[in-house]
Specification:
CATH architecture of the largest domain: Orthogonal Bundle
Number of domains: 2
Structural class: mainly alpha
Shape: elongated
Strand order of the largest sheet: 1-2
Number of strands: 2
Helix content: over 70%
CATH class of the largest domain: Mainly Alpha
Length: 267
């Protein structure tokens, strides 16, 4: 079925929107696991990110993954601050999976390796963010490594689960959609412009900006918390000093201050 340029653009918009919605919903199919001050999850969002990249290539797959995952973060107060970084890291997962699948000759092995590579890229970016975030928030390196280690376990489980779900779904859906209008989006070969091109340069610049802003925000948050802790410690020291002076005066003047009666004792 031939697809006109106009229809192809329409199909691209529709597929990005649809896959982004699946990524968003997949994030809600989850099991939350407390990890110190963090919350890590086992969920199905990553499987939809990989599926988007495998089916529709690096750009459409990356956008679907990034938009769907970032929307989930924006609607959850726990993750809202990390939404920009989530967009970048999930985009990288879908982009990597789509790039490898579209530029490999052996489809079956390419799909598997593309899913694994996409997931590995995301895990590295996620764990790097976890470790650096904890350091910026003032945690000791040992604590940061411990929290990152726990997240590494859940990330590995998520990664295996995502690959096990996404790869069979790709083969099933690619056959089911073979005679539909979006079939060409699945079978088309993307032009190989190399890794250094305007798209990757733009994405790299975006990643650097997002990472810098995220780092600045964390540093400012840590600075505010540190100032509040210092104020609290100063107030506590003043209270302790006053209590010491009161106790000293009581001893010098030999005064006993009777304990205050509660309302129940007074009655």
């Amino acid at each position: 079925m031939a697809t006109t340029v106009k229809n192809k653009r329409l199909y691209s918009i529709v597929t990005v929107g649809l896959m982004a919605a699946l990524v968003y919903v997949g994030n809600y199919l989850q099991i939350k696991i407390p990890n110190g001050g963090l919350v890590t999850r086992i969920h199905l969002g990553n499987s939809m990110c990989l599926l988007a990249g495998l089916l529709f290539g690096r750009l459409r797959g990356g956008l679907s993954s990034g938009i769907g995952a970032a929307l989930y973060d924006l609607f959850d107060p726990v993750y809202i601050v990390s939404a920009p970084y989530t967009f970048f890291s999930k985009f990288a997962m879908g982009f990597t999976a789509g790039h490898i699948r579209k530029h490999s000759k052996n489809e079956k092995s390419a799909v598997i390796w593309a899913a694994v590579a996409g997931q590995l890229v995301y895990i590295v970016l996620y764990l790097l963010k976890t470790f650096i975030s904890q350091i910026l928030l003032g945690e000791p390196v040992s604590v940061a490594l411990k929290l990152t280690g726990v997240n590494a376990i859940t990330s590995t489980i998520n990664g295996v689960l995502a690959c096990v779900i996404a790869v069979p779904l790709y083969f099933a859906l690619s056959k089911a959609l073979a005679h539909t209008g979006i079939a060409e989006l699945i079978t088309e070969k993307e032009e190989n412009k190399g890794w250094l091109n305007p798209l990757t340069a733009g994405l790299t610049a975006f990643a650097v900006i997002v990472t810098a802003l995220y780092t600045i925000d964390l540093a400012n948050t840590n600075k505010v918390k540190k100032q509040e802790a210092e104020k609290e410690a100063a107030y506590q020291q003043q209270i302790d000093d006053l209590q010491y002076e009161i106790d000293f005066l009581k001893d010098q003047l030999q005064i006993e201050i009777p304990p205050r009666e509660t309302e129940e004792e007074a009655e």
